Known about the structure:
The protein is an alpha+beta fold. The chain is built from five helices and 17 strands.
Amino acid sequence: MSATVVDFPAGVVSGSGTVERVETLGEAVGIVTDRTPFHPVDPSWPDQPADTGTLNGVPVLDCLVGAIDADGVLSVGDAITPRRGDPDHTWVVVHVVAAADAPEVGQPVDLQVDAERRAALSRAHTACHVSALALNAVVKDLWRKDVARDGIGNPDFDKIALTESRMVPDQARDTYRLGKSLRKKGFDTASFRESLDAVATQVDAQIQAWIDADASVEIQTEGPHLTDMRYWCCHVPEGEYRIACGGTHVTALRELGAVTVRYEAPDDATVVAVTSVG
């Protein structure tokens, strides 16, 4: 068995494949095909939920990453222990269906992703990246030390402070840690927290400027398989952003329509960015 060929980086939402493995997963069954348009949830960074849809017309209940070891043992989702892309394992996409609906090994199957839900998750994921990069630009003057920078040269607050990212259709939530380590790196956390409303207004304006400039988006891939590296690239007037990302995205920022960001401060050391599309 070879690693799954994935078509979702190109925005594909339908296709066909051949069943290579059928695995019992509790009361359900995991179906591995040679290729798929389905995007699985990544257990190491589960920001974007799995695609849903159908396999030969029956519901795909979940879509998971799987790792097969040298002995042929399949681990899925949170049970995976090797590092993503470990060459001693074969990395596959596992479509979860009800046991009664399982096809047989060798059978060709039709794979259909819920296109409307995929589009909404793609908008959320792109808006998440864009709002984070706009935030980098807005808070660049709050740094007192030199730190890692993003694609157009702003201090990369998002990369340094982000602890969690989660998406639902047309909305993303990013959690930033404003603790002692961030202050030691030279970031003025007090001023940031005191100006969250103003920051949100400026972030919204920066995103709108990029939308008005008709900034394009593309996914660059280093190969066709699940664990081959993929990069989100956004071409804004200031330059190009390039971020390692395994999710799905729109092809131009104009597809987002309107984007708004608000910031929540649940405690003294945390800020949550809520980015909404539409």
